[in-house]
Fold:
Amino acid sequence: MIHEFSLRKTATICGISLPTAFYWRHKVLDAIKKFVGRGDVEGIIEADETFFLESFKGNHKKSDFVMP
Structure:
């Protein structure tokens, strides 16, 4: 957002989908909105522990299936 990249370019740079880039941008903007006027914010912002729901149910029957 600081560099004013489009959502498509942001998604490509971050290696995420366009909808994910859209939702993350809005989550950041909502967080900033909550703290406007409450003092200064500086430093590094980190986000971690992202979980992706993924199921391999039924794949064990495929003879060529290899767990990623």
In short: Residues 7-59 form one domain.
